[in-house]
């Protein structure tokens, strides 16, 4: 299973692709960060992020996409841009019919480090260990994107199956 | 000048197209609301909204798009979905190279009613009067989308020109 993890952000949007399965070693395919300048209008910044995500979906053809779930209680100065970027990520995946899952920051931290309140250094170190890298990926957004993808593989796509079943049930209800 | 106003929302996304110019009468071209079910996964809801906006951009070919600026201080239970929908609207317009402007709710209320704290009924009544409609458009999201488009025409695209100049200056700076 190949998963694209996306850590949404307007200034830095982390993208990380890993391949593997539950109980099998995970392998880093690629990791990068799409950056956009705060000097540009927001619409152009979002288009740049969309193009970056679309290019990776074309190139790496993941089986699923995992996006960080954004909460309104986060730092309010950047939260709107983060939410907008997450919307772009969700649509880019869903438009291609790819399963999309949202994982919270604490779910991701717990999955990779065993501690839902792990700090960035700990997450980076665990991502490096899990993927057998020489050093933690930089910047933190890159490590977070990989941690999301790892989390998604390890949760075994169970959440995606539940959501697909719920969507199918909802579709059946609304077509009655 | 033909403007598409978008009042972003996940459950109801208002779309309104008006045509006219500063000092000339405004005309309603069309108004509607894209609705998505809360039973569906968020990614699918956003794709439905994207399709609705794209269909209107294809059909009405506006010269500019006006989107409501969303603030983090709004009702937090729906704010993330609203922000995500607004990101979709911004990208749909910018992807086509259309000028996009953001107007705040109080700018819109002030533009159509002279009062930045006007209530929904007042905004609906003024939209009906300005566009010479028999009754205020329903639901409020439809009226709000038209109010956004009206505001954009009346502000004379001045904001769009300022933003374009700022973007050009920024591009010139970064290419140096």
TrEMBL record, chains A, B:
Residues forming the catalytic site: 7, 68, 141
Keywords, alphabetical: Cytoplasm, DNA damage, DNA recombination, DNA repair, DNA-binding, Endonuclease, Hydrolase, Magnesium, Metal-binding, Nuclease
Entry cofactors: Mg(2+)
Class of the enzyme per the UniProt entry, highest EC level: hydrolase
Keyword match ATP-binding: no
Highest taxon above the source species: Bacteria
InterPro entries: RNaseH-like_sf, RNaseH_sf, X-over_junc_endoDNase_Mg_BS, X-over_junc_endoDNase_RuvC
EC number from the UniProt entry: 3.1.21.10
Cited HAMAP family: RuvC
Family: Belongs to the RuvC family.
Function field: The RuvA-RuvB-RuvC complex processes Holliday junction (HJ) DNA during genetic recombination and DNA repair. Endonuclease that resolves HJ intermediates. Cleaves cruciform DNA by making single-stranded nicks across the HJ at symmetrical positions within the homologous arms, yielding a 5'-phosphate and a 3'-hydroxyl group; requires a central core of homology in the junction. The consensus cleavage sequence is 5'-(A/T)TT(C/G)-3'. Cleavage occurs on the 3'-side of the TT dinucleotide at the point of strand exchange.
Protein name: Crossover junction endodeoxyribonuclease RuvC
Source organism of the structure: Nocardioides taihuensis
Lineage, top ranks: Bacteria, Bacillati, Actinomycetota, Actinomycetes, Propionibacteriales
């Amino acid at each position: 299973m190949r998963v694209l993890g996306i850590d949404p952000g307007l200034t830095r949007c982390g993208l990380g692709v890993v391949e593997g399965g539950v109980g099998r070693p995970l392998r880093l395919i690629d990791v990068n960060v799409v950056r956009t300048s705060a000097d540009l209008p927001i619409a152009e910044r979002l288009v740049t992020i969309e193009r970056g995500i679309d290019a990776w979906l074309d190139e790496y053809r993941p089986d699923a996409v995992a996006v960080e779930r954004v909460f309104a209680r986060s730092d309010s100065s950047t939260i709107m841009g983060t939410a907008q970027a997450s919307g772009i990520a969700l649509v880019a995946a869903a438009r291609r019919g790819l399963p999309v899952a949202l994982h919270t920051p604490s779910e991701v931290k717990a999955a990779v480090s065993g501690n839902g309140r792990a700090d960035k250094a700990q997450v980076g170190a665990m991502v490096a260990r899990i993927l057998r890298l020489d050093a933690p990926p930089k910047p933190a957004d890159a490590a977070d994107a990989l941690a999301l993808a790892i989390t998604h593989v390890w949760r075994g796509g169970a959440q995606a199956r539940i959501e697909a079943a719920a969507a199918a049930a909802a579709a059946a209800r609304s077509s009655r």
